[in-house]
Each structure stands twice: as structure tokens, then as C-alpha cells.
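User: Okay, second chain of the day. Same drill as before: sequence in, C-alpha cells out.
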Amino acid sequence: MNLQDPNLYVNRELSWLEFNERVLEEAVDRTNPLMERLKFLAITASNLDEFFMVRVSSLMHNESMSPDLSGMTPTTQLAEIYKRVHEMVSKQYSCFTRSLLPALEKENIRFLSYAQLDDHQKSHIDSYFHDVLYQVLTPMAIDQSRPFPNLNNRAVNIFIELAADKDAPAVRKVEWLEAENRWNITDELASNHKYAVVPVPTVVPRIVELPEAEHGKKDFILLENIILAHIHELFLGNIVTKTALLRVTRSSDLTIDEEDTEDLLDEMARSVRGRRWGEPVRIEVSKGISKQAMGFLKDALAFDKSILYEINGPLDFTAWFSFTSYSDFAHLRNKPIQPCPAPPFVNRDNMFDVIKERDVLVHHPYMSFDSVLRFVQEAAVDTGVLAIKMTLYRVSGQSPIIKSLIQAAENGKQVSVLVELKARFDEENNINWARLMEKSGVHVIYGLIGLKTHCKVCLVVRREDDAIRRYMHLGTGNYNEATAKIYTDVGLFTCRETLGQDASMLFNVLTGYSKTTDWQKFAVAPVTLRPGFLRLIDQEGKNAKDGKPAAITARMNSLSDKVMIQALYKASQAGVKIRLLVRGICCLKPGIVGISENITVSSIVDRYLEHSRVFIFENAGRPRIYLSSADWMGRNLDRRVEVLFPVEDETLQEELISIMEISLSDNVKRRDMKPNGTYSKPNRRGKTAIHSQMIHHANAAESYTAAAKTHFPLKI
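Assistant: Same drill. C-alpha cells below.
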């Protein structure tokens, strides 16, 4: 079969929607704790926000582009996206109203309208409105002198229809009657066609707790319902005839001319500020909005009906994230599991001594991210450390790593940090950190023109008695201690000389004008990573044809690159057994006779976001195992700086193989992809439940316990 056939590929955007459907399944799944279900629902909403701001926006702006690998034009993609998202939104609200709200009520957690409040609760809410809300609300009239306001991206607003109060003073109208050669003076009531907008403030909680009405019950009310109950107080002298909630999602693609920009930092800051005013890509309104009001909104916002979503329920489920963390709901959440310290570092005063003895693998969040924080902190104060070089893509708002880097610079060490200003939706945070580090003496680099720097590398240069030695942490995930608690990632601590030489060369490329393809162990995008992967895949095909052991086991976030997919198809045709764990987008179709019958694709959606990138090539019985920051997507292989690095320690290789086998055998949270691009759970009938993330936790705890027994009480 011709590998160019569009029928062999799944459209990227529709594959992403399939992923969000799998997340939504977790919200529907009654075996999950109630607050976890609500959190999954909020995740689906947050995912859709970003999908519209970035992916849908891109399609809308490039409708003349050629068809994608599945043969779909931007126009046909948009039509199918709108259809599927409308179906998904219906499922979201069905889950919320028919399942989650009744389940909350069974737990004595109620969401009330203002009319349902008892006298004590109403008195409390009335006081809250007058003492707090009234001071921060901004009613915005819309008329000839006050045009339709710029509504903030993703903010909830109340759209109001007004009629003049019959007791309001008449408006004097003066006009010249040309035919009669006289002035005509009349007194008329104000027009009955007036509109206004009241933004729901974000400086106060969206979900407001009410005083207890009945013993043991927790009552809440949404902020917009409080405002709506008092809306007439904001428009005295007028009659509020109808109201509707309104939410606008705007395009958030940043347009930066890197070639002609003198100061990339300032240009990025300007573009981020402008993001809130991008053109609308989705309009959400309350179901039942009047035709007259809808016509007015269409004229004011200039949107097509295709991007309109009439919502039968509260807008913006992302507001429920904070609610699920409410302290009284601990019994309705997953029982917290504490990450274990990385066993090799237990009771060892100096991490460098440990890494000099052996390579160390850390598996987050089952093993604590503290080992990474400690590595940078020890480097900052160690008198032997001469230099620290690091790439930062996404960091937390209170990053201890950046504080350690600043401390290192203040201690006189040479500190060079590449901060990726173009990390989507983290641009502003990264800009702020970059400026702070520069003021503290850190040498800050903003990446390469035209490329995002996405690799995760920390290099420490240390003077020791016998030599200058390079220590490294190389990882699959970001240097972010907050997300490290909820993302699964793998990191390697090593001081292997060949890896150290490659790491030094990498930073010379990033910080200077050095150009090289002469890597000893690394494969680096955008130059050598794609060819490196293709050679490894091709070799497995040759081994299969020669009757040698041949297999590929790979884990990644997304697989959408056509060249990589075709290489996998050819390997499958050669007889290579290929097992893929792809969390999100997968444009490859498994199980097609003559093409991909030797390929399986699975996805795991669970309490932690699967984020690691692991690649195992059988290599005729001598496995080659790699970790990377890169997915098999065009952007990672061609438009980013990414690193693939080997894991050469045999013990760690066995550990990674075990991790992969446990994940592939999961029958609780795994879904398997069908040739048509849909997913289904494996049949568990008569089989023991295998819940991979919980097994990884148990294994990490067991390793820590064994390590602790060989030493003394824990010292971190």
C-alpha cells in the first residue's frame, strides 16, 4: 500500500480531541473519588481553552494551507472540530449536571441559587454584595459614546438587556423639520434597546461559601448568581429585562519578528500583554439568550455562528480547580502519596560523591524532585564548583532553582542560564525571572532565533583533587518543582566524560556561535535528532529481516510527524514488533493489515500526567535505551533544540525496561487505540488489576526502604 495514502493517518486535531475525551472519561468514571472527577472535568475545560487559543486559531488564520497528512484542509478540519467540540461540551455538562452535582448533594455539598437561600444566608450574601462586591464591580454601558468593551480573554461576563424605567425622567428630543421650517421639541422615554456588560471580578473567589443552613451541609453559591440577584442596583432608573453569561476565548498565538527585533525580552513582554485582545475564536453564552441580544453580540464581536456555544450551566469549569482543593473535602480526593527520596542519595552528605560512584536514575513523582533542587543548591555553595550552566523552559512562580542560581552567581561562580522566553503561556513568568537573574549577575541567554530551546540540561563544572569534572542532570521534564508532583518524568544524574563533553558543546552552541554535528553521545535537534531516530528505526527493520531480535518500545506525549510514522510503518512491514505509549496526539493508525499489524498504541490517563519520553531499541539483543525531551512531532524534530541521550548503566537500563513493561501491562487506566483512531479499555474480566502508577509508587517506596535500612535515619 502507498504510504502517502491519507487513509493511513489520523488528523492531529481530531486525535487531540480523542485525548480530551479520555480525560473526560475520568470525570465520568464513578470509581474515581468525587473531587478527582470534578478536577478531571476542569482539566478538560482548561485543555479546550488552550486548544482554541492555539490550534483552532492557527487553522482559522491559515485556511488556505494545503491538506494535512490525513488529507483534511483547514476548512474541513474546522468543521469537524466544531462538530466534535459541541458533542464534547454536551458530555461535559451532562456529566456535571446529571452526575457530579447529584453526587455532591449526596455528600451534603450543595450549590444554591439566590432564591434557594434561607433568610440568614440571604442576609449574609446581601452584606457581602454591598460591603465587597459593589466596590469592585464595573458596569459598562454600551451606546454611541461608549462602544462595546474589550472583554478579557476567557473572563466570565454578564451581558444585560435594559429597558427604561417608566418613572424615569423623559428624554428631551430636539429636531429640525425641514419641510415645515421649524424646530420640533418632544419628550420621550429612553429607548428600550439598551445593553451593558458587567465583568465577573476575578479578584474574589468565584465559588462563595454560605453560612450553614442545615447541620452538616456545606452550601455554596456562584459569584455570578450573587451579582445577578442584585443586578438592578447597578442600573438604577432602568429595568433589567434579560441577562446572559458571556465568555470570549481569543487567539493567543504570539507574532514575533525575531530577526528584526532589537530586544527580544521587551518584544515578548509587549506581545504577551497584547494576547488578551486577540480576535475571538470561541464565544460561549448562556442558553436561552434572546435573538435580539444575540444579533447585537454578533455585530459587536463580529463572529461567525460556527464558533458559538450556547451553554446550559455555569461557564468556565476551570473555576472548579480551586474548589476541589477545599480543606474539608480530603475524604473525597485521592489519598495523598508522598514521593520517596531518591535511594542513592539517602544519608549521603554530598551528591557529587554519589554521582561520581555511579549514574543515578530518578523517576518522578514517585521519587521526590528534591534531588534535583538539592543538586543545584549544592552546586551553588560548593567551593569546588566553578560554573553552572542550565536550560530553563518552564519554572514555577517561586522557583527554588532560580534562587539557587542567583545565590551561585553571588558566590562568584560563573552561572549561565538559557531562559526560553517563547515557552507558551509561561512567557510572562520567564520574562520576570530572566530580569531578576540578570540583576543578580547571572548570564542570561534568550535562545536561538527561530528555535525554541526545549531540552532539559543542567551542567555543573567542579574542580576536584585529580581533575576538572563535569556533573549533569539530564531530564525529560521541566525544572519545575510544582509540576514535578503531578507529571511523570525521568531524569539521569551522571558524570560520564563523553556526556559531559557533549553537554559543554551544547552550551557553546546555545550561548555562542559554535556549530557542530560532531556529538559523541547526544543527538540534538534540529540537526541530528531526526536522522538519529530514523537510523535506529531502520536498523531494527534490517535486524528483523536478518532474523535477529528486533523490537521498538517507545513512550512519548505525541506522535504526529509523517516521516517518523512512515519509518515505523516500514519497520512493522519488516517484522519489527513496535509498542507505543502515546499519551495524547497519535496520527499513526495501528493494526492495519500489511502496514501496521505489528504496531500497538496505548495511552494512560491517570492521576499523574504521563510526560516522560523513553525509547528502547532491541538492537539484536543488546538494547539501546534513550531518554529525551522530544516527542515525535515536527516542531520537536525541526523547530526546537532537543536532546536525546543514552542510558548506558545496565542496572538503570533494566530499571527503565521494568518501568515500561509495568506501564504497558496496565489494565486499569490504559486505553488501546483502534485502527480508526478511537480508544477502548482492555478487557479485565478474570484478570488481576494492574494499576501502573500505583505500582511505580510502591516500587519507589520499596527501594527507598531498602536504602534506608543500609544507612542511618534519613538525611536530605
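The CA atoms of residues 246 and 285 lie 5 Å apart.

User: Thanks, on to the next one.
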